[in-house]
Amino acid sequence: MADIIQLLPDHVANQIAAGEVVQRPSSVVKELLENAIDAEATIIKLIIKDAGKTLVQVIDDGKGMSVTDARLSFERHATSKIRTADDLFQLHTKGFRGEALASIAAIAHVELKTKQSHDEVGITIVIEGSNITSQDVVVTPKGTSISVKNLFFNIPARRNFLKSNTVELRHIIDEFHRVALAHPGISFLFYNNGSEIFNLPISNYRQRIVSIFGSKTNEKLVPVTEDTEVLKISGFVGKPEFAKKTRGEQYFFVNDRFIKSAYLNHAINSAFDGLLKNGLHPSYFLYLTVNTQSIDINIHPTKTEIKFDDEHTLYALLRSAVKHSLGQFNIAPVLDFERDPNLDTPYSYNQKEISSPDIEVDRTFNPFKEDYKSGKQITAFKKQTINNWDSLYVGLESKGTKTEQDFSEVHFESNNDSESLFDDDKLDTVQTTYQLHNKYIVSTIKSGMMIMDQHRAHQRILYEDFLENLTVKGASSQQLLFPLLLHFSKQEIEIIKQLKEDLEHTGFIFSNVTNETIEITGVPISIPESEVSIILEQLISDVENEVPDSNFSVTDLLAKSLAKSLAIKNGQPLKKSEQEHLVNSLFACKEPNVSPTNRTTFVTMSVDELDKKFI
Questions:
Q1: CATH code 3.30.230.10 for 205-328
Q2: Which of 369, 460, 510, 518 matches a 20 to 30 Å C-alpha distance to 605?
Q3: What is the pLDDT of residues 144-170, one digit of tens each?
């Protein structure tokens, strides 16, 4: 029998490795930015075209590479930072060029230009699908420039799985934020399709956060600091009143490396316990410094997950540090229900000498004595009332008083109305709906009963209404007495600009849109003014993270997002008329069976099925 196990060719092995390292254009951005940081760059430029599908270029002014290093950087398992296995647990850098560049070069066209400071000229290398096509001397400034073009050109199946440009750009911006926030001592510039998105000068942590998320962010931040032998914490958390429905502004950095940790995130949420409404998430930008030997950063290919030696201690320290900061800056109120404020000493009495109070007592007081002043007056009043009760009606007649003949004009209340207050059996209404656990609406039908999910049903109703307003007719709008000014980041403003025309069809009226603020003077009738900010935040999140299929449009996504935000929530009690209106409106829809996200809105149960339950 022939042997069936064989070694893979290098180009196939590189493509398999690329599947772990390079999932989308943002993965390339992450690797190239981290390499530039490890090269000790002070200025890093990121240039993107077509959300990274056409071009991802990173230019830095770092140390650069020699000719030999430039060639070896594209070989598998080549690194300048690992010598022994023990070095894996003492990493102070981001990654190593070898594995990342070899994986990227296997599935893209890569052009490298690099020069060291002591060299007169640099070198340029062009690679297509792991094959070096050219190598030459080039005049280039100090540092390194890597251009990655036509990502997944030789793996069309992987390219077809990429999302739209809006979503892919969102992932690139997220990776850019994670790197830029961790390194405020480096200047970053970000260009997308020729336009400047970010220009971040060298600054401190707070200034870097404000530069990325807008000037309004400054007033939202509460500093957090803690220094122990196990863990050093610095950074900021957002005030509870600025919490959002989305988890966008949540960043953990361990040794200047962005990580994701549901366990540490729970520590932050527990510190905010009692300060946030249900469904809201706090913002935080926390920088943790721990011993490199106490963590393992190689448990995940993208190195976004870290294994800690003692997670319980970190959890307790992080929770107490955040809780202390919230209390220290009077964010978390301190309530003592046992203290009586009436016993507090006024400040004006602070220096006053203590003196015994003067007490005067009426020693002649006798409540049973008849000649006591108060008792005598009351007794006289009672006697006068009893003896002269006729005098109580004196003076009631006036010039405008009607005679007995006028009583024929008096209209009395009919007996039917008075009987309806007590005779429930005569009411013509029969209860056809019933709300179960403030979540489901139970209604009777000919064959049995129907159970409807009120949240999903209302989503379907609103979705079709908004879709009709967007595509067929314009929606009515209500003018605001005072303009509503909302603050967003630059990339969020760009999304709102894209959706501005469609939002105006739903009833929104925008009077002014700047780089960080939008001014709204009118909103749809069905939207309360207090919910506008939450609805727009949810809409931006949906546009960034959800992409409709090819047969859908942005209009459809907008209608879905608005319906999801405005639909009544599970747990909300409804009146009988509201229940009936919801049922009737649902079955007036074109597709009442499913919600806009293709989830079941109601189920039915026949009498036969109910009978079987009692067998």
A1: yes
A2: 460
A3: 999 999 998 888 888 888 888 888 888
Of the candidates 197, 189, 205, the one whose C-alpha atom is nearest the C-alpha of residue 170 is: 197
Instruction: Report pLDDT for 461.
Output: 92
- Higher pLDDT residue, 389 or 419? 389
- Write down the domain spans for the chain: 10-200, 205-328, 436-604
Query: Degrees (nearest 5) of the Cα angle 388, 393, 394?
Result: 85
Sheet containing 433-436: order of strands = 433-436, 440-445, 448-453, 602-606
Bridge partners for 522 per DSSP:
479, 509
- Residue 265 structure tokens: 């995130």
Tokens matching residue 195: 């336009």
Q: What pairs with residue 524 in β-bridges? A: 477
Residues 482-502, buried b or exposed e (16+ Cβ, 10 A)? eebebbbbebbbbbbeebeeb
The alpha carbon of 239 is separated from its chain's Cα centroid by a whole number of angstroms, namely 14
Q: In angstroms, rounded to a whole number, what is the distance separating the alpha carbons of residues 310 and 307? A: 9
Q: Which amino acid is at 574?
A: L
- Kindly state which CATH superfamily the domain 436-604 is placed in: MutL, C-terminal domain, regulatory subdomain (3.30.1370.100)
Query: Per CATH, which fold does 10-200 belong to?
Result: Heat Shock Protein 90 (3.30.565)
Q: Give Cβ neighbours of residue 237 (< 8 Å, ≥ 6 apart).
A: 221, 222, 224, 268, 282, 283, 284, 285, 286, 322, 325, 326
Return the ∠ at Cα 553 (arms to 469 and 54), rounded to 5°.
150
Specify which residues 559 forms β-bridges with.
none
**Cross-strand pairs, 189:** 45, 199
| Type of residue found at 202 | I
- Residues 6 or more apart whose CB falls under 8 angstroms from that of 157 comprise none
- The span from the CA of 570 to the CA of 435, in Å, is 11
Closest CA to 58 of 75, 76, 34: 34
Q: What is the pLDDT of residue 427?
A: 43
Q: Residue 290: CB partners within 8 Å, gap ≥ 6?
A: 230, 231, 232, 254, 255, 308, 314
241 token code pair: 């009143």
Angle formed at CA 193 by CA 115 and CA 29, multiple of 5 degrees: 50
The pLDDT value given to residue 6 = 76
Count of CB atoms situated within 10 Å of the CB of 222: 19
**Section 276-302 average pLDDT:** 80
Yes or no: say if 399 and 405 are a contact pair by the CB < 8 Å rule: no
Q: How far is CA 439 from the centre of its chain?
A: 24
Question: Would you call 512 helix, strand, or coil by DSSP?
Answer: strand
* CA distances for 247 relative to 262, 296, 537, angstroms: 12, 25, 11
Q: What's the rounded Cα separation, in Å, for the pair 516 and 215?
A: 8
Element housing 603 (H / E): strand 602-606
**Can you give the pLDDT at residue 338?**
62
Report which DSSP code applies to 533: H
